[in-house]
Every structure is written in C-alpha cells, then in structure tokens.
Design brief:
The protein is an alpha/beta fold and 228 residues long. It is built from 9 helices and 6 strands. The chain starts with 9 loop residues before the first helix and ends in a 12-residue tail after the last helix. This is Uracil-DNA glycosylase.
C-alpha cells in the first residue's frame, strides 16, 4: 500500500513509511481489493480508512482512545472509533460515554455522535481494525490491520511524551500493554458497552483525569464538549 495512495497527514506517512511498504500491508490491500471486486460493501469508505490519522497529526496527539472495529451498519463508520456520521442514531457505548462525560465534567450529552472536533484537538480516535464488511462484525480481524495500528501506538509511545492513553475494556488494555506508564498516563476501566459499563466505567472520570494530567505537564487540556 503505497503512501502516495493514502489519505492521511504527512507526519504519519513519514513515521509509518516502513509499514506502508511492508508485505503485510500489500497483502491487506490485495484482500480489500478482492473483497470489493466480489461486491462486498466495506466500511468506512476508502478515503476514510485513515481518517483518525488524517485529522490528528502525530505531533498534535494529546490523548489516544482505542476502539476495536468500525461499526458495520450502513452509514455509521467514518474512520474514528466510537464516532458515527451526523444523523445516525448514537450507539449504546457512546450513549454511556456521554453519560460519563456529563457525570465527570457536567457536559450535556450531544444530540449526535460525530466526534471529529475531539480528533481536531489531538484526541486520536483509533480503532484496532480499520475496515469491516457490512453486517459482519470483526470480519476483517487478523488481516493485518492490528499490526499496523500496533505500529501507530508504538510511534506515539516512543516519539511523544505526556500523552493520555484511555483504554476501555480488556481488548484495548491488552493491545496497548507496552505503553510506558512512566512517560505517559494510562487510564484503564471497563468498556462503556451496556454489558460492562456498570462494572467500573461509570465513575471512572477519564475526561477530567486526562485534562488534569495534560495541565500538570504544560499541555493544553481537551475541550470535551461535542460540537453542536
């Protein structure tokens, strides 16, 4: 997968050039092309595979939130974890994120689930797997995306300082287990899914803790209000 074909910020193209030139990424590109040629709808659209990296340049990253897979319903996914397109029903996990945001910082829940203004402030909203087939959750796991997004996390861990990693659920916590907790702040809690949110996600206060840490290290806090 040549970087000339990829829509993402130049800082990431440079930092991840070895990944884009790798055999596993070539195999991943071939897989995606074959799926499309077989008429399978793939989400998000091709120009948004790397939307998280395009909206949040490497040097701008202040917070990393890790998701697992894109939403697999039509019109939902647009390249940012937990976020959906304007006009799409807010998914249950994001409803709970908004509840915790209100409890933590007094921010009223938004009427939509479009989180691009977080990404534009330096919140890297990164899924582990960046594509999915319509209606088939986890259908693109094990095809190479995990290796690529591990490299993204590794670059942030090694090249930046004082980044907040918000890791919801065991999957995210395992994926980012190598992050240096002395160099960065690692916040762990159960996943905001309705299945687990009451086991410690509610009351975990990740948003205020992230901002306190950023301020303590001379970095701008995040305005967690979701744009109207």
């Amino acid at each position: 997968m040549a970087t000339s074909e990829v829509k993402l910020d130049e800082s990431w193209k440079q930092a991840l050039s070895a990944e884009f030139d790798s055999d596993y990424m070539r195999a991943l590109k071939a897989f995606l092309l074959a799926e499309k040629n077989n008429g399978k709808p793939i989400f998000p659209k091709g120009s948004e595979y790397f939307r998280a990296l395009d909206l949040t340049p490497l040097e701008a990253v202040r917070v990393v939130i890790l998701g697992q897979d894109p939403y697999h319903g039509a019109g939902q996914a647009h390249g940012l974890c937990f976020s959906v397109q304007p006009g799409v029903r807010i998914p249950p996990s994001l409803v709970n994120i908004y509840k915790e945001l209100q409890s933590d910082l007094g921010i009223e829940p938004a009427k939509h689930g479009f989180l691009e203004n977080w990404a534009q402030q330096g919140v890297l909203l990164l899924n582990s797997v960046l594509t999915v087939e319509e209606g088939r959750a986890a259908s693109h796991q094990g095809k190479g995306w995990e290796q690529f997004t591990d490299a993204v996390i590794r670059v942030v861990n090694e090249r930046l300082e004082h980044v907040v990693f918000i890791l919801w659920g065991s999957y995210a916590q395992k994926k980012a287990s190598f992050v240096d907790g002395k160099r960065h702040l690692v916040l762990k809690s159960p996943h905001p899914s309705p299945l687990s949110a009451h086991n410690g996600f509610f009351g975990s206060r990740p948003f205020s803790k992230a901002n306190q840490y950023l301020l303590a290290h001379g970095r701008e806090p995040i305005d967690w209000r979701v744009a109207p």
